[in-house]
Design goal:
The structure holds 2 protein chains of 2 kinds. By secondary structure, chain A is mostly helical. Chain A is built from 4 helices and 2 strands. In chain A, 10% of the residues are buried. Helix content of chain B is 31%, strand content 19%. The chains are: A mainly alpha, B alpha+beta.
Chain lengths: 91, 314
C-alpha cells in the first residue's frame, strides 16, 4: 500500500491525518498500528501531505505558476485559500 | 561609496580613477554627516593594520568611530573566523569598537544574522530567505523559533483553559494528536523558562511544581475592568476606605489564576486603592495601556475638580 493510499484509508474510516501550521504531522481517530506506521514513516507522510497542500494552494491560486511565492501566512489554514491583505494582517 | 549629486549614490571601487581612501584619510570626513550611510566592504580593504593586534585594530575602530561621531551611520563588513566560533576574525578589539555586531550565518537554508554584541536594543536574530528569481531577500523566520513560539502559546493556552493543571496533563494534551510527540523534558524546559512571566507554579510539600496558573488570563482582565466600577471610583473620591465594592471581595476570589485569596481591598482603612489596581496585583496591561485605567482616571480627576470647585464656593 502506498502512503497516499494509507492516508486515504484512514480518512475513509473516519480518522484524520493532517499537518498543522508548523508542518507537524497530526493524526486522530487512527488505530495503534496505523499510528505506528505513521510514526515509522513520518517523513514520507509529511511529504505526501505537503504535496497535497501544495496542490491545493496551486489550484486555489488559479493555477498561478508563482503560487509558491506567496508567503505561507497569506494562506488560510487548512483550506489553503489566498487571503486578502487585510485578512492577512489579522493573522 | 561616494555621493554623486545630492541624492545619488555610487560604489566607490578600485576601478575608479580616484581610488577609495583608507580609513585614516581625512577625505572620508567630508562624506560623514547625518543621514549618510557609509559601507566598508570589506573592512580589511580599508586599513593596513594587523587584525590580530589589539592596539592596531583599536586605531582602525577609532577611525570608524570618528566617522560615526560626525553623524554618519557606519556599516563595516568583516570576515568570520575559520572555526566559526567567535563570529568575527581577529582581535576582540573589533567588537569592542562596534556598537552592534551581527554575525551572518546559514541555518535551515536561510540567511541568519545573530547579534554577537549589541550596545543598543536590537533584534537578536534576523532571518532572511533568498528569492533568487526576484533577486531579493525576503524576511523569514526559523522553524526552530516558530516551533518554540507555538509551543509556548500551546502551553499557555492549556494553562488558561485548565487553571491548576499539571505538567503531565499539559504534555498529554499537547501531544494528543501529534504523531511525533514533544518530549516532557522540552515542555518542562519551556515551563521553567517562562515561569513568573507568563504563568506561575504552585509547589507541593516536597518543592516540586504541582499546578500551573496563568498570570494574565482574560477572565482576570475582565474582572479588573469590572472592578473599576463607579462604586469603587466613588469610594476613592469620597476618601473613604477602599474596601470591596460588594461582599464578594471585589471579585478577586473567583480569579482563575488562584493564589489571590486575599480580598483586594486595602488592609488599612486609610489606604486608597486605584480603581483598576487591586492592592495585591500588578497593573494589567492591554495593548500598551492600563486596562480601563485611563478613562477612569480622567473621570476621577474631573470629579475631583468638580468637588474642589464646589467646596471652594461658599
Amino acid at each position: 500500500m502506498t502512503a497516499s493510499q494509507f492516508v486515504a484509508r484512514i480518512r475513509k474510516n473516519g480518522g484524520r491525518v493532517w499537518l498543522d501550521q508548523l508542518g507537524r504531522l497530526n493524526a486522530e481517530g487512527v488505530s495503534e498500528n496505523q499510528m505506528k506506521e505513521l510514526s515509522d514513516s513520518h517523513d514520507l507522510f509529511v511529504a505526501v501531505l505537503r504535496e497535497e497542500i501544495a496542490g491545493k494552494r496551486w489550484e486555489r491560486s488559479g493555477k498561478d505558476p508563482k503560487w509558491w511565492r506567496y508567503p505561507e501566512e497569506a494562506w488560510s489554514y487548512p483550506e489553503q485559500e489566498l487571503l486578502t491583505a487585510d485578512a492577512n494582517a489579522m493573522l | 561609496m561616494y555621493r554623486d549629486g545630492e541624492n545619488a549614490h555610487r560604489h566607490w571601487g578600485m576601478w575608479c580613477d580616484d581610488e577609495p581612501p583608507l580609513l585614516d584619510n581625512s577625505l572620508l570626513l567630508t562624506f560623514a554627516r547625518p543621514g549618510v550611510v557609509l559601507f566598508f566592504d570589506a573592512l580589511i580593504r580599508f586599513h593596513r593594520a594587523d587584525e590580530n593586534s589589539p592596539s592596531a585594530m583599536s586605531q582602525v575602530m577609532a577611525c570608524l568611530r570618528r566617522l560615526q561621531s560626525q553623524g554618519a551611520t557606519v556599516i563595516a563588513f568583516h570576515h568570520r573566523d575559520k572555526k566559526l566560533e567567535a563570529g568575527y576574525r581577529g582581535t576582540a578589539e573589533i567588537p569592542s569598537g562596534a556598537d552592534v555586531l551581527y554575525s551572518l550565518g546559514k541555518e535551515e537554508g536561510n540567511l541568519v544574522l545573530r547579534a554577537v554584541k549589541a550596545r543598543v536594543q536590537v533584534d537578536q536574530v534576523v532571518t532572511f530567505t533568498a528569492d533568487w528569481d526576484e533577486a531579493r531577500l525576503v524576511p523569514a523566520e526559523l522553524n526552530s523559533v516558530l516551533e518554540k513560539r507555538a509551543l509556548v502559546d500551546e502551553i499557555r493556552d492549556q494553562i488558561r483553559r485548565n487553571p491548576g493543571t499539571s505538567q503531565s496533563r499539559i504534555a498529554k494534551n499537547i501531544n494528543a494528536t501529534l504523531v511525533k510527540p514533544i518530549s516532557r523534558w522540552r515542555i518542562q524546559r519551556v515551563l521553567d523558562q517562562h515561569e513568573g512571566s507568563l504563568w506561575r507554579a504552585d509547589r507541593g510539600p516536597s518543592g516540586t511544581k504541582t499546578a500551573y496558573f496563568d498570570l494574565f488570563s482574560t477572565s482576570q482582565k475582565e474582572l479588573l475592568i469590572d472592578d473599576s466600577s463607579n462604586t469603587r471610583a466613588q469610594q476613592v473620591v469620597d476618601g473613604g476606605p477602599a474596601g470591596p465594592a460588594s461582599g464578594a471581595a471585589a471579585g478577586l476570589g473567583t480569579m482563575e489564576s488562584g493564589g489571590l485569596t486575599q480580598p483586594a481591598g486595602a488592609a488599612d482603612p486609610c489606604q486608597q486603592v486605584l480603581p483598576t489596581q487591586p492592592a495585591d496585583l500588578p497593573p494589567t496591561y492591554e495593548g500598551g495601556r492600563s486596562a480601563g485605567g485611563l478613562a477612569d482616571m480622567d473621570a476621577q480627576v474631573r470629579r475631583c475638580r468638580n468637588d474642589d470647585e464646589k467646596g471652594a464656593q461658599p
